[in-house]
Amino acid sequence: MELQLQYSWCEWRFEMRTLTALAIAGLLGITGAYAQMSVVNGASFDPAQPIAPGSFATIFGQNLCAQTMAGDWVAPGQLPTTLGGCSVAVNGTPAMMQYVSPGQINFIMPAGAGSGQATVMVNNGSQTMTGTAMAGSAGPGMFALNGMGMGEGAMLNATMYKMGPFSTTTNGQPTYVAMYVTGLDLSTTPTVSIGGMPVDVMWSGNAPGYAGLQQINFMLPAGMAGVGRAPVTVMSNGQVSNVTFMHVLPTAAM
Prior knowledge:
Helix content is 5%, strand content 37%. By secondary structure, it is mainly beta.
């Protein structure tokens, strides 16, 4: 059975949130003033995780761009490659950009980045800054509602169009959950685990019309009723995501 419930970013009303350079400094263990660029997965913010082609990536630093601006969609699935007078290139290939500010840039890793250490260049019109990123075929990152890659995961009840908490049944039928991620290797089916137990993935792929955003639809097992707040992870091509959480309610009988 293949379930293709493809909800757009707008229908779900989930906004990709931004973090200040100060907040991410604490998250990554960076102390003091820093001018060095840090390039991380745009959902998990894990500096040790590879960044997959076509996925969201985030640059943190200082004086990256003189303006603060969000990118408008040029066409379905396409964002601008120049934003607020700034541009990003990975191994010489221009990257689409979703957000720019003096301390943060969100961009899409170009498809031709390959694997291994990649050179990331930021040009803000007055200077060019260079950093590195580890590119790879997979680097799954789960979006979180707080925008920091931890806490409650970005998930929807795929029948009711509602966020959690979740029940294992919806209108007398099994509950299907849509989870929003980035960095999957779409040549293989990802593994979703809740509380350490794998669940049935019904469909995974790119969210229609939105660059960098991917979606996994899975069925919530009946045996998980009442587990409460449970950790969720995604594995894609051997790479494991950050941990987010979902809350599973007890049944009426419980």
